[in-house]
Amino acid sequence: MSVLAPPKQPAQQPVAPSAGAMWVSDGWTVTKRNLTKLKRSPDMLIFAVLQPIMFVLLFSQIYGGSIEVEGTDYTQYLMAGIFAQTVIFGSTFSGAAMAQDLKDGIIDRFRTLPMSSSSVLIGRTNSDLVLNAISVLIMMATGFLVGWRVNASVGSFLGGVALLLLFSYAFSWVMALLGMSVKSPETINNASFMILFPLTFISNAFVQSQTLPGPLETIANWNPVSAFVQAARELFGNVGSAPVPDVWPMQNALLTVLLGAALMLIIFVPLCIRKFASISSR
After folding, report:
1. Angle between helices 185-201 and 92-104 (to 10 degrees)
2. Residues 73/104, Cβ–Cβ less than 8 Å
C-alpha cells in the first residue's frame, strides 16, 4: 500500500513593503545621511550656532542699554526676535544643500536607487529641522545667561518651541524649491540674504514697529515675521505690558502663524516634489 505524498505547498513570496513604509524608511535613511554629513563637517554646525549667539550678545549687551521698549525689558523683548531670525535663516540650509547636491551630481546618484523620490526632500528638510532645534536650544541657554526668562507655563513654553520649529520646517520647503530652481549654491545664498535681512529687520523683531517711520511701520505691522515674533513672545510670556498694534495679524499672531505655516506646506511640498521629479527625469 503506497502512501501518497502530501501536495507541495506553494513557496511563500516575500511581501513587498507598502509605499508608505518605503517612503518613511527612505526618508529616514536620507535624513541619517545628511546628519552624518553634518557630523563630518563640524565647521558648518559651529558657524550656524555662533551667529545667533553673536546676535544675542550684540543686541543685549551692546545696544540693549540704548534701546528702550515700552512696557517690558529689552532683553525679554529681544529674544523672541533672535529665535525667529535664527530659524528663518537656518531654513536656508535646505535650499543651499539642494543646490549643492545638484551641482555635485548627488541627485543623479539617487535617481539610480530604488527609493522614493520625495524621500530626498523629506530627508533634507528633516535634517535641517534637527539643526534648527540645536540652534534654538543653544540660543535659549545663551539667553538665560544674559537675563532672559520664560514667564509662562511649561505647556506654553513647549508650545513656543514647537511653533519655532514648525515655522522653520515649513519655510525649509520654500527654500528647497528655490534651491532646485537656481544654478549654484552661491546664488541662493546671495538671494536669500537680500530678501531675508530686510524681512527680519523691517519687523518687530528688534524694535517696536511704532518706532519706525510711517511706511515702514505699516510694512512691519503686516510683515508675517512680526506675527511670528509676536506669537513667540506671547507663548514665552515676554510681552509684558507692551502695546500690540491694532492690525489683524498682530492681534491674532498665533493663528496667523499657524495658517501661514499650513499654507506654506500645502503649496510648497507638492511644488517641491513636482520640481524634483522634473529634475530627476532629465
Report:
1. 170
2. no
Q: Is 217 exposed, middle or buried (0-12, 13-18, 19+ CB in 10 A)?
A: middle
Name the residue with cell 520654500: 174
Residues 260 and 267: their CA atoms lie apart, in Å, by 11
Task: Tell me the DSSP string of the chain.
Answer: -PPPPPPPPPPPPPPPPPHHHHHHHHHHHHHHHHHHHHHT-HHHHHHHHHHHHHHHHIIIIIITTT---TTS-HHHHHHHHHHHHHHHHHTHHHHHHHHHHHHHTHHHHHHTSSS-THHHHHHHHHHHHHHHHHHHHHHHHHHHHTT----S-HHHHHHHHHHHHHHHHHHHHHHHHHHHHSS-HHHHHHHHHHHHHHHHHTTTSSS-GGGS-HHHHHHHHH-HHHHHHHHHHHHHT--TT----SSHHHHTHHHHHHHHHHHHHHHHHHHHHHHHHHHHT-
pLDDT tens per residue, range 187-205: 887 878 888 888 999 999 9
CA separation for the pair 186, 34 (Å, rounded)? 20
Angle in degrees, 0-180, between the axes of helices 154-181 and 253-280, rounded to the nearest 10: 30
Rounded to an integer, what distance in angstroms lies between the CA atom of residue 272 and that of residue 177? Answer: 5
Using one digit for the tens of pLDDT, what is the confidence trace for 154-169? Answer: 999 999 999 999 999 9
The set of cell numbers assigned to 73 is 525689558
Q: Where do we find the cell 507638492?
A: 270
CB atoms within 10 A of CB 159: 18
Q: How many residues does the chain have?
A: 282
